[in-house]
Amino acid sequence: MQTKNPSTSQRAGLRRTASRAPLLALALAAACGAPDRGETDAAGTATAAPAPLDALRAAVVTERVKTDSDDPAIWIDPRDPSRSLVLGTDKDDTDGGVYVFSLDGRIDRARTATGMQRVNNVDVAYGLRLGGGTVDVAVATERNRMALRVFSLPDMRPLDGGGIPVFDGDSLRAPMGIALYKRPSDGAVFAFVGGKSGPANGYLWQYRLEDDGRGRVRGVKVREFGAYSGRKEIEAIAVDDELGYVYYSDETAGIRKYHADPDAGDEQLAFFGTHGFVRDHEGIALYRRGDGTGYILVSDQQGHRLQVFRREGEPGSPHAHPAIAVLPVAARETDGIEVTSAPLGDAFPNGLLVMMSEDGTFHYYPWEEVEARLPARPAAKAAPAQPG
User: Fold this and answer.
1) What is the pTM of this model?
2) What gap in Å lies between CA 345 and CA 323, rounded to an integer?
3) Which of 8, 313, 339, 387 is exposed most, by the fewest CB atoms within 10 A?
């Protein structure tokens, strides 16, 4: 199911500042309770410097998770996009979880799933075939149990029978990164999983998610692929369902690009973003436009900024992705990010960017404020609201 874009007149009305007043109030309230940046916390640990004056400022800062926020995902409500959800992980070692937030940044505690062991990353897929029907799902990595956890959306009901084992139980490859891919040709749903460590080739494992015959989700490994520099780790993964590519951050080295379809081969298509990052290449998100263009956003973690690349590449070179912009942001030490081009009601009529911040929160940025900092390009319709 797909949502429709609002008309031009509707967009103009939706942009009114008054519509964001409750969101801005929540952001200011959260900021007042945050520790001062550029100083030290109660344990004497140095905190990040204050955001520069030209940094993008969040319209909403969410309530805090219990311990350590890491990675967000967005689920778009097909009936009422203004009631869409943001999911965010908490990496607490014994009471971690997938938190559910409304678009005003408040935690939905009835649907939040906790009691898990170091939940690292999360992603969303629409229309997984299960039990004779289809269901939208959130899939997260439960790092300390070497498992994937699968929940139905929007109710967050467990669908995995306690967890799907990954990496054949090799604890040195504890699962961190996760990205989901729905193959357009047949609707099959796959999970790409990255671990804490791995070999120079075959770092990522790809699993097909399917019904185990009892209405629960199981994972069947279909390939091992992907180069690794050996420098740090591979956590951030993102998939372009429409164009058929998977991207991942080889931390401190660059961003690698491959075919998402396991039947399309294991050749590396691109290795970009190798210069200009302060240190770690972290979260990746894809802003899709309806004409096949858009943006690849990557968190420059220690730079407290986003590096932006063209989704479609360069004319005649679809796998050439030079940086086109660097955007300072108010979020600090960002790991995971997510973005959508779907209109999400009055507050986010042109889409939403979500970024993790080091104080246990997630920051929401209206897309039009991000796009205003990017080089001008021809107008295009947003991509369908739900990928795949």
Assistant:
1) 0.87
2) 31
3) 8
